[in-house]
């Protein structure tokens, strides 16, 4: 496990605030720079390095009519889930989680110098080859997570940071991540029932309010990401029969017609409405080769 004791209280006291990196329903993400005068801080963290603090504010929780004590307990449970899963992950394509402070409602991450995949596509106009290069890194990172029995549950372009200097990605944001099997029961999948993520990336089974396999939800989201990479647009607004484009896609499948202009075979498999037929991540890697 990648971990060393990062003392948030100490570092914030000895840090310079740089800027706000983003805001959302989850809270606010801020960038700091350690300004300790020594070569290394007392917790062995390298000085003069940037670090990121995510101040949590799960707005959806506080909008609901729960009593305050229950809301606070649920808040801490979600924060601990994100932190715990983050500290289990040690991979070159996944952001490193350093510390948590439940009193400040904050989680600390290493800083990745880059822009998210969506901004990268919109501002850099990269070639299809370059976009696929980073997509394959996403699949490798996700393979690592799935091998540990962890599903991301909120994969989208905005949760993939492109470090163009080092030519690699960093998968971020484990706020909705779930453990779907453990090492002692590797053949047993822990099903989920709640809907997570951004609407256009959500798998069709999540709309049905039934138990589903979190692993296959990640595959669906990756299929949407692959479609956007290739076509520079979303295939549909949401994967439900109320969406005309998705309805046309279902008809194309039923009539065995081509729907995708490029990468039809792999997209059909990753975006199969039936999650039991959808491939596992190791099969996706073979399809990309």
Automatic annotation (TrEMBL):
Kinase in keyword set: yes
Name used for this protein in its record: Protein kinase domain-containing protein
GO biological process, one term: intracellular signal transduction
Any one GO molecular-function label of the UniProt entry: protein serine/threonine kinase activity
Organism expressing this protein natively: viral metagenome
One GO cellular component, as annotated: cytoplasm
PANTHER family according to UniProt: KP78A-RELATED, MAP/MICROTUBULE AFFINITY-REGULATING KINASE
Pfam families: Pkinase (PF00069)
Domain Protein kinase residues, every copy: 15-289
